[in-house]
Design a protein that fits this description.
Length: 260
C-alpha cells in the first residue's frame, strides 16, 4: 500500500506526490508502460505519417508538401495526444485509488472500470486542452494558472461521476487553497520528466547507427510521449488523492468504495 494516507497532519506534500508517482511507475513499469503504449497508439500512427513526410521532403526538397496546413489534421494533431492522455488518466485513477487501498487490479479490471466514463473523460480532455493552450498562446502566465487550477479534471470525472464542465469547476474548487503547491508540483514534475526523457532519447540514439529512419524516429517519439503521458496521469491521480485527503479529510477506503 502507498503511504499518502498515513501522513499524520493530512497535509498536501509535493515530495510525497512525486515520490508516489515515480515509485508506482518504476514498480509497475511492465504494467503501466504497455497500457500507455496501447492508449497512445493513435499518436504513433500520426507520428509515423509526419515523420515519413518530413524524411521524403529531405530527399526531394519539397518541404511545402510536408507542411500540411489542413485545418482538420491540425486539430487532430493538437487534440489527439490530450485525448489519449485523458483516457489513460482515467484508467490510472482507478488503479492508483485501489493501490492506495492495498488492492492490485488487473489490466482488464482497470479498463472495464474506466470504460463507462470514457465519453465525459474525452470531452473534458478536449475542453481542458483548449482552455489551457488558449491561455498559453495569448498570455503564458494565465495558461500556467489554468493548468494548475484544472490539473485534476479527469479524476473528478472518474471518481465523482461529473460531466465535463462540472469536472472543470470541481477541479478549480478542489485545488483552491493549494494552487501554489500544485504549481510547484507541476514545475518539478516537468523538470524531472524532461531529464528522464532526455536520458532515454540519448541512450536510444547512441544505441542505433541510423537515426534517419522513419520507424526509429517514430518509435523514439512514441516511447517518449507515452512515458510522459503515463507519468503525467499518475501524477494527476496522486494529486487528486492527496487533495481529497488534505482538503476534505477523505480516507482511501472511502475513495476506493466508489468502485465497489
Amino acid at each position: 500500500m502507498a503511504d499518502l494516507a498515513v501522513n499524520p497532519a493530512n497535509q498536501f506534500s509535493i515530495g510525497q506526490v512525486l515520490k508516489q508517482t515515480f515509485s508506482a511507475f518504476f514498480r509497475r513499469i511492465t504494467h503501466f508502460l504497455p497500457l500507455g503504449l496501447l492508449c497512445y497508439l493513435p499518436v504513433a500512427f500520426i507520428g509515423y505519417s509526419q515523420n515519413s513526410a518530413m524524411l521524403n521532403a529531405q530527399q526531394t526538397g519539397n518541404f511545402a508538401e510536408a507542411l500540411n496546413f489542413n485545418p482538420f489534421w491540425m486539430a487532430i494533431n493538437f487534440l489527439l495526444p490530450m485525448i489519449c492522455a485523458g483516457v489513460f488518466a482515467a484508467i490510472a485513477t482507478y488503479e492508483v485509488v485501489l493501490d492506495e487501498n492495498g488492492r492490485r487490479p488487473s489490466l482488464g479490471e482497470a479498463i472495464a472500470a474506466a470504460l463507462p466514463r470514457m465519453l465525459p473523460v474525452v470531452l473534458a480532455s478536449i475542453l481542458f486542452t483548449i482552455i489551457v493552450y488558449t491561455g498559453m498562446i495569448f498570455l503564458f502566465v494565465p495558461g500556467l494558472f489554468l493548468l494548475t487550477m484544472l490539473w485534476v479534471t479527469v479524476p473528478t470525472v472518474v471518481m465523482e461521476g461529473l460531466g465535463p464542465i462540472a469536472a472543470l469547476k470541481r477541479s478549480a474548487n478542489l485545488t483552491k487553497g493549494y494552487r501554489w503547491r500544485v504549481f510547484g508540483l507541476i514545475v518539478l514534475f516537468i523538470i524531472m520528466v524532461f531529464i528522464l526523457q532526455w536520458a532515454l532519447s540519448l541512450v536510444l540514439i547512441l544505441a542505433t547507427s541510423e537515426i534517419a529512419n522513419v520507424y526509429l524516429l517514430t518509435g523514439i517519439g512514441y516511447l517518449g510521449i507515452t512515458t510522459f503521458g503515463v507519468l503525467s496521469a499518475l501524477a494527476v491521480a496522486y494529486t487528486y488523492v492527496a487533495l481529497k485527503i488534505a482538503k476534505e479529510s477523505a480516507s482511501v477506503e472511502e475513495l476506493a468504495a466508489v468502485f465497489d
